[in-house]
Amino acid sequence: MKVRLLGVDTLSKALKQKSRNITPAIQRIVRKHGAALQQKEMRTVPVGTPQSTGIKGYVGGTLKRSITLDISGNGRTAIVEPTAHYAA
């Protein structure tokens, strides 16, 4: 028994075109939600104070400032992470 598929080239071209049309929308969504996650993390990360550390004049916030947003994978991946050496 043989099976012959007709229109595969046409289907492939149509799918590629649709993919190109939705890529900017995907990139906007990934960036929007990645930025929202970064902002949430920055709001919730603990920040040391002179009282919490026992160090007079201590200025905290290094961990908070180290939280970065990296967009990769042709705009389809958002990575939010702290880069301070002591970040868990």
Q: What does this protein look like?
A:
- By secondary structure, this protein is an alpha+beta fold.
- It has a domain at 32-88.
- Helices cover 51% and strands 14% of the residues.
- The chain is built from 3 helices and 2 strands; from the N terminus they run αααββ.
- A two-stranded antiparallel ribbon has the order 1-2.
- A hairpin with a 4-residue loop joins strand 1 and strand 2.
- The longest helix has 37 residues, at 8-44.
- The termini are far apart.
Give a short overview.
Helix content is 51%, strand content 14%. It has 3 helices and 2 strands. It is rod-shaped, with a radius of gyration of 23 Å.
**Could you say which overall geometry the principal axes of the C-alpha atoms support?**
rod-shaped
Tell me the helix content.
Answer: 40-55%
- The strands making up the biggest β-sheet line up spatially as 1-2
The rounded distance between the terminal residues' Cα atoms is 59 Å
- Over all CA atoms, what is the radius of gyration? 23 Å
User: SS-based structural class?
Assistant: alpha+beta
Chain oligomer state: single chain
Counting DSSP E segments of at least 2 residues, the number of strands comes to 2
Note poorly predicted spans.
none
SS summary, helix count: 3
Largest sheet: 2 strands, antiparallel
Beta-strand content: 5-15%
